[in-house]
Amino acid sequence: MSPKTVLITGAGSGIGRALAIEANRRGHRLILVGRRPAPLEDTAAALRDAQILPADVTTPAGRAAIAEKVAETGLDILINNAGIVPSGALGTLQDDQIAATLAVNVAAPLALTRDLLPALTASRGQVVNMGSVFGDIGFPYFAAYSASKFALRGLSDALRRELAPRGIAVTYLAPRGTRTDAAHGFDSLVGPMAMTLDHPDAVAAHAWRAIAARRREQLPATRERFFVTLQRLRPAIIDRALIRLARDPAVSSAARDSLS
C-alpha cells in the first residue's frame, strides 16, 4: 500500500494509539483525533508526519473542525476507532451511560463518515469501523456495548453497499477483548468470564493487514472466530453457553462490582 493520509479517532491511547504507530511504521501520514490534547501529543511524539486535532466526534462543532482539517489535507482512510465500554448488570445501567454509548460508538461514526464523504469520494478511499466480537455475540452484562457494536456492524454493511459505487471500501474490524484503559471498567469480570485480553499492538498489526487489503471484515485469528461462526450458524448453542455463564454466582457478583 502506498503512503496514505489516515485519520484515526480515539488516537490518544489503547487501540487507537497502536493503530497510529502501526500506520506510521507503514509510512502513512496521520491525523490524530481525540477529546484531550495531552494524550494525542503523547501519541504524536512517538511518530513522524503526524498532526493532532483535539475534537469531540459526538458534537457538530467537533466534526466540523475535523472536516475543515480534512479539506486541507485530503483523506484516504478514516478509522472510526473512538469507543466506550459500559458493563455491569442491566439494572445498574444509567440513562446517560446508554446515551453516551450509542452517541460515541454508533452515531459519531455515522455522522463523521457522512461529513467526510466528499474527501473520501475524491480519493476513492476507505472507511474502517472498529467493532468487536461482541457485535456478533451478545454478551451478558455488556448489553449496551453489544447493542452498539451490533449496530456498527449493520452500519458497516449498509455503508459498504451504498458507497461501493463511489469506489469507497468499508472494513469492519472485530477484535476480542483488548488490554486498554477502557478494559479497567470491567476488570472484575475478566477472571470469572474467562476473558482473554490481547495487547493493542497485536490488535493493530492484525487490523492493518485487513485495512491494507481493503477487506470487508476482519475477525480474530483465535478461537473467537469459531464462536462467531457458530453464533451465525447455530445461535442456540451460544445461548446455552452464555446463559450458564450469566447464572454463575461468581460472574453475577462480578457484574455488580463492575466499575463502568
Number of domains: 1
List the strand order in the largest sheet.
3-2-1-4-5-6-7
Report the CATH architecture: 3-Layer(aba) Sandwich
Average predicted local confidence, pLDDT: 93
- The class by helix and strand makeup works out as alpha/beta
Helix content: 40-55%
Tally of DSSP helical segments:
11
Q: Mind describing the biggest β-sheet?
A: 7 strands, parallel
Instruction: Assign an overall shape.
Output: globular
- Note the run of SSEs as H and E: EHEHEHEHHEHEHHEHHH
**Number of strand segments:** 7
CATH C-level = Alpha Beta
Low-confidence stretches: none
Here the CATH topology equals Rossmann fold
For CATH, the homologous superfamily is named as NAD(P)-binding Rossmann-like Domain
Strand fraction equals 5-15%
CA-CA gap between termini? 39 Å
Radius of gyration: 18 Å
What does this protein structure show overall?
The mean pLDDT is 93. The protein is built from eleven helices and seven strands. Helix 4 packs parallel to helix 6 (143-163). With 260 residues, the protein is an alpha/beta fold. The N and C termini lie far apart (39 Å). The chain has one domain: NAD(P)-binding Rossmann-like Domain (Rossmann fold), CATH 3.40.50.720.
Topology:
Layout lengths: L4 E5 L4 H12 L3 E6 L2 H9 L4 E5 L5 H14 L3 E4 L14 H21 L1 H7 L2 E5 L12 H21 L5 E5 L13 H4 L9 H13 L4 E2 L4 H11 L1 H13 L1 H9 L3
Parallel strand pairs: 1-2, 1-4, 2-3, 4-5, 5-6, 6-7
Feature tags:
260 residues, alpha/beta, oxidoreductase activity, SDR family NAD(P)-dependent oxidoreductase, NAD(P)-bd_dom_sf, SDR_fam, Sc_DH/Rdtase_CS, 7-stranded parallel beta sheet, 11 helices
